[in-house]
From TrEMBL:
<dbReference type="InterPro" id="IPR005650">
    <property type="entry name" value="BlaI_family"/>
</dbReference>
<dbReference type="InterPro" id="IPR036390">
    <property type="entry name" value="WH_DNA-bd_sf"/>
</dbReference>
<dbReference type="InterPro" id="IPR036388">
    <property type="entry name" value="WH-like_DNA-bd_sf"/>
</dbReference>
<dbReference type="Pfam" id="PF03965">
    <property type="entry name" value="Penicillinase_R"/>
</dbReference>
<comment type="similarity">
    <text>Belongs to the BlaI transcriptional regulatory family.</text>
</comment>
<keyword id="KW-0804">Transcription</keyword>
<keyword id="KW-0805">Transcription regulation</keyword>
<keyword id="KW-0238">DNA-binding</keyword>
<protein>
    <submittedName>
        <fullName>BlaI/MecI/CopY family transcriptional regulator</fullName>
    </submittedName>
</protein>
């Protein structure tokens, strides 16, 4: 899976959050509403072409309108990104990752994480 730039990730979040086929013209509104980012239509088109070249989306033209469809779902992307971060920044050590996150994890999340670890199958 090819890496995405920060702007490409924001666009993918907009597409995933939209939940269905997104009209091309809606992308600018979503970026502005959700992330307070404003891009010209030509810039949005350039980023969408890059995302299409990377295999993340398919842009379909129908008549005078274009629609964006995600080809990679959010869960798959998050899983790949997390695995990549674990390898690149923590040498594959989940213990090092959790150690780095320890100060940022709220108490209520710590309890559910403990429960998740207890339920894991370590065979």
């Amino acid at each position: 899976m090819e890496y995405l730039t920060n702007t490409e990730e924001l666009m993918m979040k907009c597409i995933w959050n939209y939940g269905k086929e997104m009209p091309f013209l809606r992308m600018g509104e979503e970026l502005k509403d959700k992330f307070h980012k404003e891009y010209k239509r030509t810039s949005i088109r350039t980023y969408l072409f890059r995302l299409e070249d990377k295999g993340y989306i398919k842009v379909e033209k129908r008549g005078r309108k274009a629609y964006i469809n995600a080809l990679i779902d959010e869960t798959t992307y998050k899983t790949e990104k997390a695995a990549s971060m674990l390898d690149e920044w923590f040498d594959g050590s989940a213990k090092e990752l959790f150690s780095a996150l320890n100060q940022k994890i709220p108490k209520e999340d710590q309890e559910s994480l403990k429960d998740m670890l207890d339920e894991m199958d370590f065979k």
